[in-house]
Amino acid sequence: MLKKYNGKVIKNIGDCLLFYFPKTTTDVNNINVFIEAIECCFKILDERHNLNQELSKQQLPPFNYRISIDYGVLDLALVGDYSQIDLFGTTVNLCSKINASSIPNEIIIGDNFYRILKSFSTIVNSYNFVNHINYQITEDNTYSLYNVRRKNTFGFNNIEVRDTNSSDEQQLGSSLGNLNINNKRIILVDDEEDVLFTYKTFLEDHDYDVTAFSDPSLAMNYIRNIPNFKDLLIILDIRMKNLNGFQLHQQIKSIDPTIKILFITALDILDEFSTIIPGISKEYIMKKPVDRKIFTNTIQKILKK
């Protein structure tokens, strides 16, 4: 996979894999080499779903990735029989620290890489950059980190990343314009990873753009940056840490009261729901454990409204 995106593996660091994209240093004015770096990481996350399906068939637990990217000066050394390259230095050390504070199954980038990406208008129009945290380097020095997400519902899985030396953004922009756009979007929010995995498995045969969050605060940050709420359904668990489903519902509705929200809960409070959240009908509440057919049929009905 890395080879397709012109990336190179350097070494293992504990349970981490260090890789880099040489063309980002030799062809800095070419937008494609930076798209390659981002999309390679998204592809890794996309493939995780398929791998976890295979693990599930063997009754093995799912696994998560932590992915971080940064840009900067590297020190280079030849190791072994002088035929292998090793990279080290401040940038590698910082990226390793960023990775330790990254969100599972998300892409976090450092401020140096963010500044380069923001210089390309096509990238700005294709991705959202949500401020994640400010990493404390020293007592008086912080470093901004950003969560990278694809904008709208662009079918980036179908993007053809070209191996080209052209720096013409218009060429890439035309290819983005021809992408298949899926209008039906679903955001899943549940603090249990295995539950999210189950829901995503239920939806895999349907033509939806599905995004999942185990942290409701991160989900809220993502929702705030969505430019268009048409054909969007947000599915919430009620009992979650930090923000519960009721609090999240309140915040979402303050952004746009027309956003569709489906509650899924293990609590036996269906009859009391209308007093907790006035105006909500029972069709927007589902009881755990969730039946696959009822789950998909309910989503289909809500998104048709």
How does this structure look, described?
By secondary structure, this protein is an alpha/beta fold. It has 2 domains: 8-177, Nucleotide cyclase, GGDEF domain (Alpha-Beta Plaits, 2-Layer Sandwich); 185-304, 3-Layer(aba) Sandwich (Rossmann fold), CATH 3.40.50.2300. Helices cover 37% and strands 25% of the residues. The protein contains 11 helices and 13 strands. The strands form 4 sheets. The protein has a 5-stranded parallel beta sheet, with helices on both faces. Strands 3-6-8-7 form a 4-stranded mixed beta sheet, sandwiched between helices. α8 packs parallel to α9 (245-255). It is globular. The two termini are 40 Å apart. The model is unreliable at 153-182 (pLDDT under 50).
